[in-house]
Amino acid sequence: MGAAGADAPGVSSAGPAPEQWAAAVETLQGLPRDARVLLICHINPDGDALGSMLGFALGLRTLGFTRVQATFPGPMDVPEPYAAMPGSELLVPADEATADPALVCCFDAASVSRLGALVDRLERATSIVLDHHASNAGFGTIPLVIPGAAATSVVVEQLLERLGVPLDAAIAECLYIALVTDTGSFRFDSTTPAVHQLAARLLATGIAPAEISRRIFETRPYGAVRLHAEVLLRTRLEPAAARGRGLVWTYATLDDLARHGQRPYVLESLIDPVRATAEADVSCVLKQAAPREWAVSLRSKGAVDVSRVAIALGGGGHRLAAGFTAYGTVDEVLAGVRAALDQE
After folding, report:
1. pTM surpassing 0.90?
2. CA–CA separation, 285 vs 334, rounded Å?
3. DSSP secondary-structure letter at 283?
4. H or E stretch at 39
5. DSSP type of residue 42
6. pLDDT digit string (tens) for 298-316?
7. Spatial distance between the Cα atoms of 301 and 192, rounded to a whole number of angstroms
8. Short-list 310, 309, 249, CA closest to 285
9. Which of 18, 52, 61, 285 sits at a 20 to 30 Å CA gap from 325?
């Protein structure tokens, strides 16, 4: 089945239709337990992408599936805070992922562009897409997208429940990590009563939230602390940008990482202190991925829909948190961001 296009049932703001849930359950229940099942999350995976994927992988193992692989495009570079996540033994490098899966399940990717070279697997097999990005247009054979859900793990938990998979501590830890990272430790607007109810069900399995919090949010190498300090000194405020709503930005280079002996994942949390700037609604962090390539993170306090900005620049995301890949110099990338903000 094709990965995208006219065959896709599409995405509703209300979430998947009953027949889409039923199709996903029927597809999984109808597979032989020795069928090759490939799980893929987006490039440079975060806590939601990895937690949702590995939590679902463990759920499939509970159902008796014996040939489950989990992967993501690019180098197999799992961020250190997530290295000990249950189910990590199911991760394989992208170049070792099965070329002929019977089923592909995709996690936390708003578009096929986030799957890199692995997108060809979607074109060869039936696919189930689990996501929560409002910008997801509905690719895949069976898109299960709940726009506005706090995390993709919300979608995963609902599918596991329909499949009759009980929550154990290992599955719960993966889904909790996904939930707590994408809600900013339950600080974001997406934190609803239903989110706390899901967290309560996950905690009831016996997982340790304090230990998870220390590992995910409060443990960084000394070199990363010094790297953050150096990059934050570059922060610049542009009060007139975004039609007077304000823009604050900074950037980190590959040389910065090499100088402090750090891996790229340590840059993911840089957006948090930058976004705290009171004088700017929009915050932006550029993270160099190659000589002229940048991963750009955008955040908004509410006045600007940064998902529209990201979509205009080839990316996607949510109204208050989005991103895209850009090419050029820092000045060229920022010029594009400023222009898109003014247009928005």
Report:
1. no
2. 10
3. E
4. strand 37-41
5. -
6. 999 999 999 999 999 988 8
7. 18
8. 249
9. 52
